[in-house]
Design goal:
Length: about 200
């Protein structure tokens, strides 16, 4: 027999979602269903009378999706990772942003219409036209990059903050933005040569 479900046990689930939007319930239900967060009804026929019995009294996947959308309002339109900490059939939602999400948020770009972007992507795929769908060609300062590195420091494997800053600059290069009007790799070279000094922690 499988082990009995213990509601007091802490379970952690990571979900990838678009900030400020309610995700598909069909994708959320299989992840949270086994953890006792989905309301289930069992029907028992007792003397020809149908009696509903509630197995788990908690929110539906739709309610959890709404809670995730509320928790990620600051990250509207950006793909972020959410951490669901589940105990006693109650889900606590925390946002775990990636370096790319933090950089794009710091660029303060206007919100994009994802439906129009998807339509454009389909047209380009059909007609095989080379096009960049999303350009993050803004400019950041070194101070902004250092602040992002401080936020990412607990998850970085670098020994010093300088190494984390270099990691963030590598992500900035992938995203496509510039730092102090220069290519991010030029800033990395300046840090290595000692022209730009990164403070200790």
């Amino acid at each position: 027999m499988p082990p009995k479900f213990d509601p007091s046990e802490i379970k952690i689930v990571y979900l990838r979602c678009v900030g400020g939007e309610v995700g598909a319930t069909s994708a959320l239900a299989p992840k949270v269903g086994p953890l006792g967060l989905v309301r289930k009804f069992y029907l028992f026929i007792v003397q020809e009378v149908i009696v509903p019995e509630i197995a788990f009294v908690c929110g539906s996947p739709k309610k959890i999706g709404d809670d995730i959308a509320k928790a990620t309002q600051d990250w509207k339109g950006l793909k972020v990772t959410c951490k669901l900490t589940i105990q006693n059939r109650v889900a606590k939602i925390d946002v775990v942003p990636s370096a790319a999400s933090l950089l794009i948020k710091e660029l303060k770009e206007p919100a994009r219409d994802r439906k129009k972007a998807l339509q454009l992507k389909r047209l380009v795929t059909v007609f095989r036209v080379n096009s960049e769908f999303v350009k993050h060609n803004g400019d950041l300062t070194v101070e902004q990059v250092i602040n992002i590195a401080r936020q990412m420091r607990p998850r970085s494997m670098a020994k010093k903050l300088e190494g984390t800053v270099k990691e963030i600059l590598g992500t900035a290069q992938s995203v496509g933005c510039t730092v102090n009007g220069q290519h991010p790799h030029d800033i990395v070279d300046a840090i290595r040569s000692g022209d730009i000094v990164i403070p200790e922690e």
